[in-house]
Amino acid sequence: MDPLLIVLIVVVVLAVAGGIWFYAGRNRGGQVPPEVSAHKPTSADDVLLTPPVEEAPPQAPQAPAATLERPESIPGRMQRLRSRLAGAGSFGKAILSVLSRGDLTEADWEEIEDTLLTSDLGLEVTTSLMDELRTQAKVLDTSDPDAIRTVLREQLLELVDPGMDRSLNLTKPTPADGWDGAGGEPAAAVLMVGVNGTGKTTTCGKLARVLVADGKTAVMGAADTFRAAAADQLTTWGERVGVDVVRSEKEGADPASVAYDAVRQAAREGVDVVVVDTAGRLQNKAGLMDELGKIKRVMEKAAPVGEVLLVLDATTGQNGMRQAQVFSEAVGITGIVLTKLDGTAKGGIVVTVQKELGVPVKLVGLGEGADDLAPFDPEGFVDALLG
């Protein structure tokens, strides 16, 4: 037989035998070539020994961090509001216009007097100012607008009385003030009062912003328990600047109790000031005025009330005077907050309310903005009246 043919037959036989041996070994659980095992496990043991792939647990979406508002600084408020005061009762400009005519007739003087009376200065103040203006007009050249303006400015500034202390009493009480030292250190207490519709609750919220802008901590008390919306409104104001609000979840709850709780919480938290809002009430409702006195008395069981601020709508003019007198008798007003002292107000109410009550205008509001409340500036107010 041909040797080449013999070699070919041997190779074929060996190849067939090798294939048979491979498949037989696989069926007996033998080793599988590495290139096969690299693709997938070949037995149950191999499956169990393969480490499972762990999936990361789903994470709950995180709520965005609350961002507190940064109230406008006190100097910035005063500068901005001073410019707005230019529209707060233009009687000064009207008087200057008449005085600048020179050689004033009796009709001119009557025009000046009418302007003063319609600007809510009141009869007594108007008479006094008219006498002084007539006297000065005799010794001055009334054709000199600067000289006239100087005289009128001096007279108006004297009426507004820049010497009155307009700072808020925010000094924390001491044991000598009637505090027994229990339950923490009391905060300076501010009680806000007024009739319906003066913007009292809004003013409380704006006052909290003033305090925060001045670097003080505060708590507000929602003692207007007759309107759930009032407590909600106060809470919204507080949340914007990080000021807690003490309120009752029960509508119609005892307002004195809420006020007391606010004072106590302020003491526990060690804050600087507690501001308590009260329900608006008409001054001719004796029962409601008595309730206001009760609120103050209950608050003073925890700490003295350093400020009782009456919120007055400047546009009410002389109608607000009777309100102020009754509130002062009921709770002892220490200061006035005049709201809406813009172009619709006549301006003279500032002089009248101070003269009648003997207490200063401490804060004024001139707009709807969150930071449209600032300390009252007598000189800025008079200069604005004179343009």
Explain what this protein looks like in three dimensions.
The chain has 387 residues and is an alpha/beta fold. Among the domains are: 74-160, Up-down Bundle (Four Helix Bundle (Hemerythrin (Met), subunit A)), CATH 1.20.120; 175-333, Rossmann fold (3-Layer(aba) Sandwich). It is 48% helix and 11% strand. It has 15 helices and eight strands. The protein has helices spanning 3-27, 34-37, 44-49, 74-84, 91-99, 106-117, 123-139, 145-160, 200-213, 228-241, 255-269, 286-299, 319-331, 349-357, 378-385, and strands at residues 188-193, 218-223, 244-246, 273-278, 305-313, 335-339, 361-365, 373-375. It has an eight-stranded mixed β-sheet, sandwiched between helices. Helix 14 links the parallel strand 6 (335-339) and strand 7. Helix 5 packs antiparallel against helix 6 (106-117). The protein is extended. The relative contact order is 0.15. Mean pLDDT is 79; it is low at 26-50.
